[in-house]
Amino acid sequence: MKKKLLFIFALSAGISNAQNYLHQALVLNEGYQDYTTGEILVPVTVGSYDPINDVYNSIDTLFGMRFASDLLIDQGYYYIAADTKIFKFDLNTNTQVAVVDCPGVRNLGIYQNKLIATRGEYQQYDSYLHVYDASNLSLIVAIDTAQGPKYASQNIVVDGSSAYIAVNNGFDWGNEKGFVGKLDLNTLTYGNELDLGPDGKNPDNLVKVGSFLYTVNNKDWSGSSVSKIALDGTSNSTVNIATASTGCGTSALRDDKLVYQISMENTLNEFDINLMNVVGPVNGHSLSYYELAQEPVSGNLYTSETDYFSFGKVHIFSSNNDELTSFDVGVSPGTIVFDVRPISAGLVNEVLSFGISPNPTEGLFTIENIQEGDYFVTDIAGKLIINGKITDNQQVDLSNVLPGYYIVNVSNGTSSGVQKVLVR
Fold first, then answer.
1. What is the CATH number of domain 2-15+350-423?
2. Alpha-carbon distance 242 to 308, whole Å?
């Protein structure tokens, strides 16, 4: 009996450590302001998409904010950059924990207990880079333009104890810049700005792959390019990709490619970051998108569309570019972030006993002796097949999988258990 219990516990721990699942996708909707009158007609909202039940719910409204530009999840909390403020929310209860004024806030990054915020607006600031205490949002330092970025800044990539900052001066038409600077997160000193050159102006996105950074640049809004920067500063190169700008933020890393869309077009394009050349259009996409984001567990691509004043919708595509589902959200869904959690997170105390019937099965089976909780079914390699909430005598359908053994992991909040099921 002990051997069996030890085997179940070890198997449960192994799956728990190796396998994650998507708990929810948070969608930040920018809303709609009439800039001719200054009136906010549709407020900023944040919502949650439940992938298990395919349900979206609005969870909060940020009144008085003209727009929102970023959302970041970290350590049981999420942070929102919205117009003139940074908000901190509890990830599980969606209650507001803290808020701080930060006019012109654009993007966020985090390292240990330091929250980094870039700034940029039509007006000039004496500091385009702030660092806050993530626990209570108190300001640690505002790095002024003598010591930090001299122009409006945007995207942030945190790599170890360094934060890389995209500096674009994007609000000063005709005077766009193209720099990537480095913030030492231990000493909070800024430097080593790298000039991306005349074709690398106005970086709109910044991602890291391996030992390189990549920026998608909108130049002077008459063209677009991709730059590749070595983290050690030894090299950088830029390749032009179009004679028009990309959509506002409409680019993302998808596996080993950058996907992007040219402004006002409905073709999704791929760029090979290793070969540094345009691959071409992606089949299966015919909408004009606003946001692109790859979900890290399944690899599904989330895309958003909007007319910027009356509706917003998110479409989910498989790795084969088949549309799996879509759901309505708020106006201008500009940021999609994924709340990924480990299976049976924090369950380390007791082994939970439950039954599976029938076993072997033709595909349909019942989880017995568990009234409530969660279940996760993976293949032998640990890939998640299906998950959901448990009700009394919960039925699970594996009729669409290949024959073989699968792992059923269940949890009820205080304990967890694992069993194998054979699908014939």
1. 2.60.40.3080
2. 24
Find out whether 178 and 217 touch, Cβ atoms under 8 Å. yes
Topology of domain 21-342 in CATH is: Methylamine Dehydrogenase; Chain H (2.130.10)
38's CB contacts (< 8 A; 6+ apart) are none
How do residues 302-334 score in pLDDT, each as one tens digit?
A: 999 999 999 999 999 998 999 999 999 999 999
Where in the sequence of the chain do the CATH 2.60.40.3080 domains occur?
A: 2-15+350-423
Tokens 């948070």: give the residue: 26
pLDDT digits (tens, 9 = 90+) for 143-170: 999 999 999 999 999 999 999 999 999 9
Confidence of residue 348 (pLDDT cuts 50, 70, 90): very low
Q: How far apart are CA 269 and CA 227, in angstroms?
A: 16
Q: What residue spans in the chain does CATH classification 2.130.10.10 cover? A: 21-342
Eight-state DSSP code of residue 199 = G
- Distance, CA of 390 to CA of 392 (rounded, Å): 7
